[in-house]
């Protein structure tokens, strides 16, 4: 039976793990063809609508005939399933505990896109060990060939969990809003990616923009400081304009792209999805090792 900490109402992962249970991390199979597009969507600040963007982009891409898989990588405070009105029986905590495999926890979302749900309120998942990271990423490597596009919806901020998921992807999309704190935190995220992880480029989506001009101005501000202080190139993917229908969708646990396909925000998501699948990935897998496994070794996640 799961127990809860009375002071912070957080489920302790150790309460569910047998004392002699070892996390299994089998070496993945070699020679994975680089067919799947792996995209990390991240943000420096919480509350900028990142998960909503990932879900709507995923849905829009299914409308273009793409098979999409989304990993909710906000491991301790996952809410993608709630946003989509799903009630998964299992999540990533069951995979880490060795109770289920990745394929066992997949649920189907709108547009037949596939969802890998995270847990909520399990504190230890915010600080994964090296062994646990290897386990998750090596299991993911076994199944991503089955989809066209694999989104990683990271947590906000610059924790090691967030960075490790970012640097495994073909490309990184940073979501930012026009708020000054969001712009500052987005730059801080890019600074860590550049200086500590040697990332050379990322893409930017401006969410909650009042106008397209405001979206371009936010990007201009970010681009100005990155060009001056970082060895990194950032590309403007586009904006999602503020739309009250998004709020209505959240309240109904439905995507705005599904509920109101002709509204302003839905058209923005369609345009962004088209740009994504018609553009080339920033990076491609190297060597003959599987994609995630290779990056674990290369970046020595810890």
Cα(first) to Cα(last) distance is 30 Å
pLDDT below 50 for ≥5 consecutive residues: which ranges? 1-34, 285-290
Determine Rg (CA atoms, Å).
19 Å
The SS-based structural class is alpha/beta
Question: What is the topology, as strand order, of the major beta sheet?
Answer: 3-4-2-5-1-6-7-8
Order of helices and strands: EHEHHHEEHEHEHEHEHHHH
Main sheet attributes: strand count, strand direction, barrel closure: 8 strands, mixed
Describe what this molecule looks like in 3D.
- The protein contains 12 helices and 8 strands.
- The protein is globular, with a radius of gyration of 19 Å.
- The protein has one domain (33-284): 3-Layer(aba) Sandwich (Rossmann fold), CATH 3.40.50.300.
- The protein has an 8-stranded mixed sheet with strand order 3-4-2-5-1-6-7-8, with helices on both faces.
- The model is unreliable at 1-34 and 285-290 (pLDDT under 50).
- With 302 residues, it is α/β, with parallel strands linked by helices.
How are the SSEs ordered, and which strands pair?
Layout: E1 37-43, H1 50-63, E2 68-73, H2 80-83, H3 92-96, H4 102-105, E3 107-108, E4 114-116, H5 130-141, E5 149-156, H6 160-167, E6 171-176, H7 180-195, E7 201-209, H8 212-229, E8 233-241, H9 244-252, H10 256-259, H11 264-278, H12 291-299
Parallel strand pairs: 1-5, 1-6, 2-4, 2-5, 6-7, 7-8
Antiparallel strand pairs: 3-4
């Amino acid at each position: 039976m799961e127990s809860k900490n009375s002071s912070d109402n957080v489920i302790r992962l150790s309460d569910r793990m047998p004392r002699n249970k070892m996390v299994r991390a089998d070496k993945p199979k070699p020679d994975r063809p680089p067919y799947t597009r792996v995209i990390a969507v991240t943000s420096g600040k919480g509350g900028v609508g990142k998960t909503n963007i990932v879900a709507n982009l995923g849905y829009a891409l299914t409308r273009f005939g793409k098979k999409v898989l989304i990993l909710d990588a906000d491991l301790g405070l996952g809410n993608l399933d709630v946003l989509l009105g799903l009630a998964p029986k299992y999540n990533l905590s069951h995979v880490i505990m060795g109770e289920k495999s990745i394929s066992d926890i997949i649920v189907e979302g709108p547009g037949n896109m596939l969802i890998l749900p995270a847990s909520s309120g399990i504190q230890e998942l915010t600080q994964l060990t090296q062994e646990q990271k290897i386990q998750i990423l090596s299991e993911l490597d076994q199944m991503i060939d089955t989809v066209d596009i694999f989104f990683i919806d990271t947590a906000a901020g610059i924790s090691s969990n967030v960075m490790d998921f970012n640097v495994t992807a073909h490309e990184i999309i940073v979501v930012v809003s026009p708020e000054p704190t969001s712009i500052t935190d987005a730059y801080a995220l890019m600074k860590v990616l550049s200086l500590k992880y040697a990332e050379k480029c990322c893409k930017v989506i401006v969410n909650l923009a009042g106008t397209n001009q405001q979206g371009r101005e936010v990007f201009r501000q970010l681009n100005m400081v990155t060009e001056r202080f970082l060895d990194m190139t950032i590309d403007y993917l586009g904006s999602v304009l503020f739309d009250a229908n998004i709020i209505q969708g959240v309240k109904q646990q439905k995507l705005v792209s599904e509920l109101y396909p002709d509204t302003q925000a839905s058209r923005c998501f369609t345009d962004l999805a088209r740009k994504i699948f018609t553009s080339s990935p920033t990076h491609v897998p190297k060597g003959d090792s599987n994609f995630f496994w290779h990056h674990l070794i290369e970046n020595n996640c810890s």
